[in-house]
Amino acid sequence: MRGVLNSLYRLSGILASAFIVLICTTVLIQVAFNLVDKVAQLVTGSAIGFVLPSYAEFAGYFLAASMSFALADTLKSNSHIRVTLITLKMSDFQFWLSELFACLTGTFISLFFAFWSFNLVYESFKFGDLSPGIVAVPLWIPQLSMAIGVATLAICFIDLLITTATSATTTRPSKEVKG
């Protein structure tokens, strides 16, 4: 089971990276089109009018997907920002309790967010909501990536909660400041 969960978190991180590449690709294509237009305008006196339709909307959808998919992988790899000013002063038991509380809170919030995200996807699908841009995209498609990413985060929090609750000790972050 551990291998399946770790693979899920890694896949989520890979998808986040892929959506970042799609953002870069989309923006670079539009920049290239703008350059071709400027060169054409300088040479011929009029621009060609190259445009990647709804490129800003697509970049926004890709950004939401990349952020959502990155959540579980960064949580599992302990890359989220931790404020250790107080926890470094705690005893091992107090630290364990604070970790347990943080995992419970994160589990509750991520489950809540996942539930309502999937509800939003369902309603957008049911009512046929479309994006208002040049390319009318059914909104449930980009919303689904966010819902799946947050659901993966919820699974990761549940995993971390169970691991923390059943372990006698919790790995503390290093007292050294890296940088």
What tags apply to this protein structure?
179 residues, elongated
Folded structure, characterized:
With 179 residues, the protein is mainly α. It has one domain (2-166). The protein is built from four helices and no strands. It has helices at 2-44, 55-76, 92-127, 140-166. Helix 1 (2-44) packs antiparallel against helix 4 (140-166), helix 2 runs parallel beside helix 4 (140-166) and helix 3 (92-127) packs antiparallel against helix 4 (140-166). The protein is elongated. The protein starts with a helix and ends in a 13-residue tail after the last helix. The relative contact order is 0.15.
Straight-line distance between termini: 35 Å
What's the overall average pLDDT, rounded? 90
Per DSSP E runs of 2 or more residues, the count of β-strands stands at 0
Q: Please provide the ordered H/E string of secondary-structure elements.
A: HHHH
How many distinct domains? 1
Counting H and I runs of at least 4 residues, what is the number of helices? 4
Strand content: under 5%
Q: Per the principal axes of the C-alpha atoms, what is the gross shape?
A: elongated
What is the topological layout?
Blueprint: H1 2-44, H2 55-76, H3 92-127, H4 140-166
Helix pairs in contact: 1-2, 1-4, 2-4, 3-4
Task: Summarize this structure briefly.
It is built from four helices and no strands.
